[in-house]
Amino acid sequence: MNRNEQLFERAKAVIPGGVNSPVRAFGSVGGVPRFIRKAEGAYVWDEADTRYIDYVGSWGPAIVGHAHPEVIDAVREAALGGLSFGAPTEGEIVIAETIAELLPSVEQVRLVSSGTEATMSAIRLARGFTGRDAIIKFEGCYHGHSDSLLVKAGSGLLTFGNPSSAGVPADFTRHTLVLPYNDVAALQQTFAELGDSIACVILEPIAGNMNLVRATPEFVRELRRLTTEHGSVLIYDEVMTGFRVALGGAQSLHGITPDLTTMGKVIGGGMPLAAFGGRKDIMACISPLGGVYQAGTLSGNPVAVAAGLKTLEIIRRDGFYEQLAENTRRLTAGFQAAADAASVPFQTDCEGGMFGLYFADFLPNNYNDMARTDTDAFKRFFHGMLARQVAFGPSAFEACFMSAAHTPELIDETVAAAQAVFADMAA
Ligand SMILES: *Cc1c(COP(=O)(O)O)cnc(C)c1O
User: Engineering a disulfide at 292: which of 32, 91, 128, 309 sits with its beta carbon 3.0 to 4.6 angstroms away?
Assistant: First the structure.
């Protein structure tokens, strides 16, 4: 057994499935997860001392590259001053001001420690603000693992959802409607029937948890129009897309002003930090000002805030997103050419520092489309690339991430590996 195999066996004895988040177990691609010893720039090293070019990026946070020296210095300095106080700090104000400046829809913001907390709190807030219970989410979008969001579609368009996880009482998902992504007619019909009882609609504006699927301009325009007309809160879940697809998030690309936005991943720069914010009149409903309870022992943690602030400083530098987007396009174009040359059915899409790879001859528009892609082909691609020391997320249903540390040379190296893998797949 190599060291990854040994560690996986050891882990499974004391950690359920050997991992602390299920996708890490390689369940959908098979094989043994790589236990990571360290990461730097565009690389991660596993415990068997193999170095990989990494396109997981900790599932999004590592946008400036792993262990960026300026971020590490900021973390070190903050840590020397104490790890947690349970009292307000100036850094929290600075990061709130920075977020409000970068996202004009966010007038006020509250910090939490995970994306799950951010979306759960935003939904409670929307319900408290509107005095309504029903919420709408879209099939294939992931908003963290709180009870009312672990839900799959009911039997008909206007029937409320069923739990998608054991341990979630059906009563808890009784208020969650699950609609198909990008389906304008379904949205219109639902609002026509139930609009005045909908507290909020939560959307991944560029879905990154069913690979990468864009919301269409008509869809988001209609969503904004209907939620405004019916007094429902529109929540953009930008935990993944925020500061990832553009400095102003997906909302800046859509030209849509949501009522609330949830953030995570990039804003913590690799530390546990997330946030939700938006309209001041809505945010005023949170305790201690209002009656919607929300709290956290480690919320606004000074070390996490220091990592986040430094990351936000780096991504605001001139040309950061232009370079990132150009590099992402270089990679996806290289992959497309390699697949075409080998006649492997394959498509790509990208925005900013996020990209999708689809083993299909079409671009998916919703979850059903994504489910029709060839996941066996993805598995072969994934393992072929891993064997050539390039790491992608171990699932066909996850987006991939570029960092500023991925140079054009490293990207060309990645494309060369892909050429070999596609050729193998065609043979
Ligand atoms: C990752 C993610 C979450 C959950 O964030 P955690 O920090 O893992 O709890 C929520 N929404 C979206 C869109 C995400 O990508």
Answer: 128
Residue 48: CA count within 13 A, CB half-sphere: 15
Domain(s) labelled CATH 3.40.640.10 in the chain stretch across 69-316
The topology under which CATH files domain 69-316 is Aspartate Aminotransferase; domain 2 (3.40.640)
pTM of this prediction?
A: 0.98
Residue 166 DSSP SS3: coil
Cβ–ligand 1 contact at 114 (below 6 Å): yes
| 209 Cβ inside 6 Å of ligand 1 | yes
Which of 46, 237, 259, 369 is an active site residue? 237
157 with 190: CB under 8 angstroms? yes
Has domain 3-67+319-426 been given CATH number 3.90.1150.10? yes
For residue 2, report the distance from its CA to the centre of ligand 1, in Å. 32
Strands 233-238 and 260-263: parallel
Could you tell which of 123, 238, 239, 241 is best to mutate to test the pocket of ligand 1, judged by most ligand atoms within 8 Å of the CB? 239
For 337-387, write each residue's pLDDT tens digit.
999 999 999 999 999 999 999 999 999 999 999 999 999 999 999 999 999
Any atom of ligand 1 within 6 Å of the Cβ of 241? no
Which residues of the chain fall below pLDDT 50? Answer: none
265 an active-site residue?
Answer: yes
Both tokens assigned to 123: 């939904």
For ligand 1, whether the C-beta of 302 sits within 6 Å is no
The Cα 177–Cα 140 span in angstroms is 13
